[in-house]
Structure formats: structure tokens, C-alpha cells
Amino acid sequence: MVIAAANPARSGRAESGSSAAAAERSGRMRSSLLPLGPPVSRDRIISSFPKWYTPDACLQLKEHFHGQVNAACQRRNTGTVGLSLSKVVVVGDLYVGKTSLIHRFCKNVFDHDYKATIGVDFEIERFEIAGIPYSLQIWDTAGQEKFKCIASAYYRGAQVIITAFDLTDVQTLEHTRQWLDDALRENEPGSCFVFLVGTKKDLLSRAACEQTEVEAVHLANSMQAEYWSVSAKTGENVNAFFSRVAALAFEQAVLQSLERRSSSQPQVGDGDLIRMEGSPSDTQETKRPSSLGCC
Ligand SMILES: Nc1nc2c(ncn2[C@@H]2O[C@H](COP(=O)(O)OP(=O)(O)OP(=O)(O)O)[C@@H](O)[C@H]2O)c(=O)[nH]1
Ligand SMILES: [Mg+2]
């Protein structure tokens, strides 16, 4: 992997030097090669499309991979997707639980003590989706204002933006729009999937959680984001959430790869007979994913 060549760790920290910068560069290179490591753990194997948290604020209501994606995966014909990783950036106010959420998912740990993130950290998490190896590079950014300019340097090239807020602190929900705008500014319009995540679900009663969720779902819709409530402490919904992130990002990456391939294929020109690669249905049906951030 380019990551491995520049930085053998599967995690890193920006303030300590060049490792995060190297990872950031390699994350931008969609063709960066990943190593053939040990098999991924069972809970990272995704064979059917993971479900949304609530149909009231979800990016896609369908329950299956796109037909072209299924077909490409069956033929092991997903281009560079099986060899590359996608960048996920997690943003939000300080103390909302961004680091805890990532550590619960990547390391299955939870720490009660607060240690502010300084600058940015990242973790790489490997999946196998529809039989194809796939990795997420998950960037944990600092919520403290004084580190914002370091963190924002790493927003670029994100395929997924996760805006996190604390379900017990409604002010942090109000700030998510600003966090999202800052992250979107560094990326191509329409190029990112957006998630709005309420953290610390374990600290609320079911009724209180549902009350906050009404407001959060409303905001998620206005942001064209998918909504999830999670708890890093208990682990509730954490694996399901990241599986959903991985599946959506993977599907989009495969569709984009198919589209790139189809647009680079030669067309039938004046008087020249040129044989098209793949089946006729492959080339005809290949099109841009209908829309990002929309059911
Ligand atoms: N009860 C409970 N506490 C949580 C949960 N997630 C995080 N916390 C606590 O909230 C505090 C802040 O968590 P962090 O993950 O460090 O917050 P952060 O968003 O990364 O903060 P910055 O790095 O400063 O931006 C810590 O004391 C965590 O133990 C959760 O799901 N439940
Ligand atoms: Mg943190």
C-alpha cells in the first residue's frame, strides 16, 4: 500500500509530523495499492446492503447493491476499487465523542477520560464488501477551535463527511451545519456522502432521545444527510453505522470506476469497426450514481 510504503502504521497523528500528510496524499490517490493482509474479521464482511437507521433521514432506501455493482463484483471486475481506500472525515464540536466513536469501531475500546484530539488522527479499517476488499481511511479531527486550522487542512478529498453532535447537548447539534459547510468547502460539490450522527445515546432515556431525534432528522434532511444515533460506550449502532458508511462509499466508488472505464472506451467511429469491451448491457447501463445525499 502506498500508505504502508510511506507509513507502516494503520493509524497516525498529524501533529507528530509527516505520517498523516503522507496518508492524506495517498488517500487522495484513489489508485493507491493496499497490501494483501490477513483476512478481514467476520464483522467487516458485508454481503448484503446494510439498512438505514431511520427511513425519515437516509441517503438510500434500497436494500440491495446496484445491479451493475453486483455484476461487477461477481466478475471481480471492479477496477481499482478493490485496491484503494476511501477517505472519511469526522467533524464536530469538542467533547461530542468523535474519537470515542472511532475507537469503539476500530479498536473496540471505550475510555471514560477525555483526551482532546490535537490536530488530526486517522485509522484505516479493512472490509470485504460483496467479495471485494475495501478500506476506509477514517480521519478524526479536533473539535477545539485552536486546532481547527490544522484539522481543516485534512478535509480535502473526502468521500464521506460525518458530522457528530452530542445528543445531550443541543448546542452541538446547532453547530453541525457550520462544521459541514467548512468540510464541504474543501471538496467538489456533490462529491461527498454526508452523515449526521448523534452520540452518547446511552445517556438519554428513550423518550428524550426520540425528542432530540425529531430535530436532528429535520436538520439531516436540510443537510441532505443520513441520520444515526449511536453510543460509543455501549457500542450500540456503531458497527451498523460504519457498515452503512462503507457500503455506500464502496457502491459509489464501483459505479464511478465503471463510469470512468466506459467513458474511456473507444466509440464506434466513421467507418471504423471497434469492438467494445464487456457485455452490451455493461456499457449501456453504466451511468453516474443517480444522486448523492438523496433517496
Ligand atoms: N456516556 C458516554 N460518554 C461518551 C460517549 N462517547 C464519548 N463519551 C465521553 O465524552 C468525552 C469526550 O469524548 P471524545 O471522544 O474525546 O470527544 P471528541 O469529540 O473526540 O473531542 P475533541 O477531540 O476535543 O474534539 C469523553 O470523556 C468520553 O468518554 C458515549 O457514547 N457515552
Ligand atoms: Mg477527539
Automatic annotation (TrEMBL):
Topology of this chain in the membrane: Lipid-anchor
Swiss-Prot/TrEMBL GO biological process terms: protein transport
Ranges of Low complexity composition bias in the record: 9-26
One CC-aspect GO term: Golgi membrane
Compartments where found: Golgi apparatus membrane
Domain of life of the native organism: Eukaryota
InterPro entries according to UniProt: P-loop_NTPase, Rab, Small_GTP-bd, Small_GTPase
Primary location: Golgi
Cofactor: Mg(2+)
Keywords recorded for this protein, A-Z: Golgi apparatus, GTP-binding, Hydrolase, Lipoprotein, Magnesium, Membrane, Metal-binding, Nucleotide-binding, Prenylation, Protein transport, Transport
UniProt region (Disordered), positions on chain: 1-26, 261-295
Pfam families: Ras
Enzyme Commission number(s) of this protein: 3.6.5.2
MF GO annotations: G protein activity; GTP binding; metal ion binding
Reactions listed under catalytic activity: GTP + H2O = GDP + phosphate + H(+)
Gene3D superfamilies: P-loop containing nucleotide triphosphate hydrolases (3.40.50.300)
Family: Belongs to the small GTPase superfamily. Rab family.
Function comment: The small GTPases Rab are key regulators of intracellular membrane trafficking, from the formation of transport vesicles to their fusion with membranes. Rabs cycle between an inactive GDP-bound form and an active GTP-bound form that is able to recruit to membranes different sets of downstream effectors directly responsible for vesicle formation, movement, tethering and fusion.
PANTHER family reported in the protein's UniProt record: RAS-RELATED PROTEIN RAB
Protein name: Ras-related protein Rab-36
Organism for this UniProt entry: Molossus molossus (Pallas' mastiff bat)
